[in-house]
Amino acid sequence: MDERRHRHRDEAEPEAVGEETDAEAVDDEAVDAETPTPDGADAPEPATREPAWSRVATRLRRALVPRALRLAASLAAGVLLCVSFPPFGWWPAAFLALALLTWVLTDASTTKAGGFGYGFLAGLAFYVPLIPWISGLVGPFPWLALSALEALFPAVFGLLAVIVRRLPGWPVWFACLWVLAEWLKSTIPFGGFPWGAVGFSQDDSPLLVLAHYGGVPLVSFAVALVGVGLAALVIELVQWWRRDHHVRHGLPPAVAVPGVSVALVLLVVALGTPYVRHSGAGAGEDPTTTVAAVQGNVPRLGLEFNAQRRAVLDNHVQETMHLAEEVRAGRAPQPAVVIWPENSSDIDPIVNHDAADEIAAAVDAIRAPILVGAVVSAPGYTPEDPQALNTVIVWDGATGPGERHDKKIVQPFGEYLPWRGFFRLLSSFADRAGYFVPGHGDGVVHAAGIPIGVTTCWEVIFDRAARESVLNGAQFLAVPTNNATFDASMSAQQLSFARLRAVEHDRFVVVAGTTGISAVIGPDGRIVDRTAFFEPAYLDAQIRLKTSLTPATRWGPVAQGLLVFAGAAAVVGAMLHNGAFAELFARRRRKAAAAEESTTAVDDHQDEGVT
């Protein structure tokens, strides 16, 4: 039994070679303290007790110094991930980030707990500088708390990556696990927070075309596969080069999987790019129409703009009147439909006659229906629970308000506050959260005879929203958004999401923001026209109405499900491969056998007593 115990301990130790644990340090101190003084020798002077801060500093130094390089690499990986997103937009940084993190997680001294910790550190370095605009809405504490929560998902990736790193073909499993972690953060908690999915960083990258075939999850998988594959190639080549030249025969076989993986991604990109560009160039017989987006602007940035609801509505009416003058003068084409932003009328135009008259005047002037972003009372409204719907209303000159898209995916901690009584105790900003409730519908409204898919602001980041609209017949996508609470960085990030959606579903996308950035985006992700941030403006562009369905629209959830399943299966396979299950079952069998022997001994003893 002792030999088995020693052998099991020796087998479990290599993962932490070269790292002294806290328990070992304590044992060494205990041995030194208990060593007897030789007879006749003078007892040593009692040592002065080391200050508590010095002991803590010593322990930190022992813990951090051996890991300093891996800690620095994890921080750098997180910062590089952030740099790959707007407003920086250096998309190759995402590959370097995942390559660095791969090197950390495949190091022999990185344990499972270490993988979790390094992943968490990278997640913090990624999210804290990525989403500081949240603090303008809810304050600095919720911003940092959300960053820490989202950092848990790269941490889970790090833990699982350490588990599967010994499997054959591990670079592929690493990429699948990255998709698994992004699926988790897009699902939990409170409906998920997909902001920061690495596929969204590739709006200017050649890998953008992959969204046409598998949506954002496939782009994320490709980015991870390239980054991990490049790291695996470098690691294997360095190890091969360090071998003695007498035993160095050709390239190591371990480079085959990462090499083929990277080559396959590049091949699919090369084959898919001409088709996506062909679609964006306007080939085909798709009918055309003219669509306008109005950016009325707000009096000033910040939450205070909600107290100036009439001024915001007036701004959008005036900018629409200006567009109407340009149309009558022949300097702008007549639009078939006009898109106003989310919250362009925070005054409920269904019950407020002044607001309704203002909108009707704008509709009459432009001689086209307007999609008005409005806030209306929900059926369950009471003064104590002022429930509201964030809606887009089709306002027609002949019939007035018509079809509506009530926002179905509302933003937690902004549009509504889960566990309001609890979070109110943590931050005074809690009472600023709204009372919005999710709406219903199929994501499509009709204006001027055109089926228009609507994904209002926050909804554009969720794969299911735009997909539902297109499957229900939308011929182009409208993204009315309100960025007045945030800043230009947030607006630039949201614009990249819209570009991915355009390629994913082969549709023109029209983004209309209160303060910007408003844009018209082609089916190839190209920005046809755009506004600057924080200025009154309008866009008036010709687009094509499309009806074809992409592979991503048809099969995107299936592709994501397969990648997620592959990642989960790799973890189970690695646990079996590493003997974790076998050891667990063996331990249980040993405990059961010991219990049975103990019971038998007691029974024998009782029998002897009876005899």
Automatic annotation (TrEMBL):
Q: Which UniProt keywords apply?
A: Acyltransferase, Cell membrane, Lipoprotein, Membrane, Transferase, Transmembrane, Transmembrane helix
Per UniProt, subcellular location reads as: Cell membrane
Q: Which Pfam families match?
A: CN_hydrolase, LNT_N
Region named Disordered = 1-51
SUPFAM superfamilies found in the cross-reference section:
Carbon-nitrogen hydrolase (SSF56317)
Q: Where is the CN hydrolase domain?
A: 289-545
Q: What is its main location?
A: membrane
Q: Which CDD domains match?
A: ALP_N-acyl_transferase
Q: Which domain of life is it from?
A: Bacteria
Cellular component terms (Gene Ontology): plasma membrane
Q: Which membrane topology term applies here?
A: Multi-pass membrane protein
Gene3D superfamilies for this protein: Carbon-nitrogen hydrolase
Q: Which biological process, per GO, is one annotated for this protein? A: lipoprotein biosynthetic process
Biased segments, Acidic residues type: 12-32
UniProt enzyme class:
transferase
Q: Does the keyword Membrane apply?
A: yes
For this protein, the Enzyme Commission number is 2.3.1.269
- Kindly tell me the pathway this chain contributes to: Protein modification; lipoprotein biosynthesis (N-acyl transfer)
Q: Which HAMAP family match?
A: Lnt
Q: Which PANTHER family match?
A: APOLIPOPROTEIN N-ACYLTRANSFERASE (PTHR38686)
Indicate the family of this protein: Belongs to the CN hydrolase family. Apolipoprotein N-acyltransferase subfamily.
Under which name does UniProt file this protein? Apolipoprotein N-acyltransferase
Q: Name the species this protein comes from.
A: Mycolicibacterium madagascariense
Specify the taxonomic lineage: Bacteria, Bacillati, Actinomycetota, Actinomycetes, Mycobacteriales
The gene is: lnt
